[in-house]
Amino acid sequence: MVYQTYMHMYCPPDPATRDATRLEWDKEKTQHGIIQHEWQRKSQEQAEKEEGWKRETQRHEREMEGRIYEEYKRQEMVRREWAGETKSHEREVEQRVHEEYKRQDKVRQEWARETERHVREFEEMRSHERQEWEREVEERGRREEEERQKLHMYWGHVEAHTCNTYATREYTAQLMNLPTAWKNRVEACKATSLEVHGISHLPTTCEDRGPGVVIGRWEINQQEPDCTTFWDSYDDKYITHKLMNLPEHSDWKEFCATTPAHFNNMQFPGAQECFTSAWRVYGQWEMDDRNC
Fold first, then answer.
1. What is the pLDDT of residue 1?
2. Which of 162, 171, 174 lies closest to 209, judged by CA?
3. Which of 124, 141, 206, 261 is least enclosed, having the fewest CB within 10 Å?
4. How far apart are CA 65 and CA 35, in angstroms?
5. Residue 12: which pLDDT band, with cuts at 50, 70 and 90?
6. CA distances (Å), origin 198, targets 105, 222, 223
């Protein structure tokens, strides 16, 4: 093998070998040309495919852009229509609200006029009824007074009772000449005055004890010296006074709290505190004193 290689490198081949070699080269060259042509064809086909793909891609992109643009225009149209509908709806709502407000305002005004009319009618009715009632009361009182005067009602069995508070004594009396069947006996009691110490007084209360019997009660606070208590024995240290002229069997707390006091240029309707000591009643006051 080494010898053949050596002979091939340094020895020229014979014509047959040379021809065979050229033939092999020609075959290889032809095969190579075929392969190159096939490669070029495939390359061209690949390039054509790529160009087709490129054109298809561009066409697809143009279609997508067109579709996106068309969708944009559609959505823009929808937005404009929606905006127009929204404004129209807002105007309709505003108009409805305005009309409803006008309607409610009209209803309120009608209610106000109706209420004012009802109030006016009610006041007129009440005024008319009050006038009628006052006339009836006045007429009834006049008739009762006339009947009472015709019957010559007066107070009998007048009794003076114990003193119940400062300078005040309770009196009771029975209404006389009162018919048994008289229905307005309490009203007659209230309208009949009693003269005590030369002064006429209407009853404070009237007690209906049944047919023909009505008792009147008075609290007379004039010219009752036996009920008029007063303060004596002023004690400057404790601002204490002794209660004098206290009626027997009376409520000492009531008289202590209602007997007026005057000292140190001040007036008091009664004692602030009351207490008893050695059968005496004392009233006490608290006053501000800068010396304390």
1. 46
2. 174
3. 124
4. 43
5. low
6. 69, 10, 10
**Amino acid, res. 269:** P
Q: Using an 8 Å Cβ cutoff, are 194 and 200 in contact?
A: yes
Q: What's the order of all strands across the beta sheet hosting 168-176?
A: 154-165, 168-176, 214-220, 205-208
The model scores a pTM over 0.85: no
- For the four alpha carbons of 223, 219, 214 and 152, in that order, the dihedral sign comes to positive
pLDDT at 5 over 60: no
Q: What's the burial of 100, exposed, middle or buried (CB within 10 Å: 0-12/13-18/19+)?
A: exposed
DSSP letters, 210-232, are STT-EEEEEEE-SS-GGG--EEE
CB 217 within 8 A of CB 203: yes
Quickly list H helices, 152-234.
185-191
pLDDT band at 6 (very low <50, low <70, confident <90, very high): very low
Distance CA 168, CA 92 (A): 83
Q: Distance between CA atoms of 243 and 274, rounded to whole angstroms?
A: 10
Nearest to residue 242, comparing CAs of 289, 267, 274?
Answer: 274
Residue 165: pLDDT band (50, 70, 90) is very high
Using alpha carbons only, what angle is made at residue 247 by residues 243 and 252, rounded to the nearest 5 degrees?
55
| Strand segments (E) across the chain | 154-165, 168-176, 194-196, 199-201, 205-208, 214-220, 230-235, 240-244, 261-263, 266-268, 273-277, 280-284
pLDDT, tens digit (0-9, with 9 covering 90-100), for 118-156: 888 888 888 888 888 888 877 777 776 666 665 788 999
CA 54, 60, 64 angle in degrees (round to 5)? 145
Amino acid at 229: T
pLDDT of residue 219 exceeding 90:
yes
